[in-house]
Every structure is written in structure tokens, then in C-alpha cells.
Design a protein that fits this description.
The protein is mostly beta strands and 144 residues long. Helices cover 6% and strands 31% of the residues. It has two domains: 1-34, no CATH class; 39-143, no CATH class.
Length: 144
């Protein structure tokens, strides 16, 4: 979702206190988004065409972390969105599996691209900071 930060309005916590328990939605906003893009978590590994609204096209790249129920043992994937190209590349995290991690207790929360190396760096809840292999799917090393 794309929001205009200048148009966001505050809302009292009491307005949403019980809302999240009853709603399948994961975002609450008192302001409507300018645009939305939806990427299926069921896409196979690799590049895919995706329709990207104009509001996102000013971004060169957007890295998103999401669950990955596709026929794989990877518990999550990084979705690399390239808005100008109208493309998303799915990178299943082959190192992050239910056999090695307690999924739901441990998870990846953030990723970024190192501008010097082009590698993806990340971190999470109850896991350390990491650097991914060149393919973006395997774990290269833990960062101290």
C-alpha cells in the first residue's frame, strides 16, 4: 500500500483495540491508500510480471519479506519488486526452514540491499543479522 504521509490521520487505540482480532486484514488506517499492489505468495521462484500502479514506479527496488507456502520447505521468501520493470523476483529462503527454526517464534523481519556488494542483508526476531549468498536464497554468513 502506498500512503501520502501528509494525509495520514491519527486514530485512538480504542478504535482498533478489538479490530485486529476480528479482521483478517493486517493493516489499519484511518486514511485510504493512494495505491495498492498485491503479490501472490504462491509464485514460484524466479522473475514474474506484475501490474504495478504508477505511484510505485518512482522506486527502483522494494524488498518484501513474506510467508512462502509454495511447494518448498522454505518458510518464507523475499519478494524483490522492480516497479519500473513491472516485475517481481521471488527468492525462497532455502536456509530458513521449519526443520532448522521454530517458525512463528523466530522469523525474518527486515531486509535491505548492501549498496557496495549488492548482497541482501537482514535480521529478525530471535535470529541474528545475516548476509545472503549471491543468489539471494542461501545464507552466506551471520553478521556480528
Amino acid at each position: 500500500m502506498c500512503f501520502d504521509p501528509g494525509q495520514l490521520t491519527a486514530f485512538p487505540l480504542r478504535d482498533v483495540a478489538g479490530w485486529f482480532k476480528q479482521s483478517p486484514d493486517r493493516i489499519y488506517s484511518a486514511t485510504a491508500p493512494l495505491a495498492e499492489v498485491e503479490i501472490s505468495s504462491r509464485l514460484t521462484a524466479g522473475p514474474h510480471a506484475v501490474e504495478v500502479p504508477e505511484e510505485f514506479r518512482g522506486l527502483d527496488e522494494l524488498l518484501l519479506v513474506g510467508s512462502y507456502p509454495e511447494a518448498s520447505n522454505a518458510a518464507c521468501a523475499i519478494f524483490v519488486l522492480h516497479p519500473p520493470a513491472g516485475e517481481v523476483t521471488v527468492l525462497p529462503q532455502t536456509w530458513f526452514t521449519a526443520g532448522k527454526y521454530d517458525i512463528g517464534y523466530q522469523w525474518i523481519t527486515r531486509v535491505t540491499r548492501d549498496p557496495a556488494t549488492g548482497r541482501i542483508l537482514g535480521g529478525g526476531i530471535r535470529i541474528g543479522n545475516f548476509e545472503l549468498a549471491e543468489d539471494g536464497m542461501g545464507l552466506e554468513r551471520w553478521i556480528e
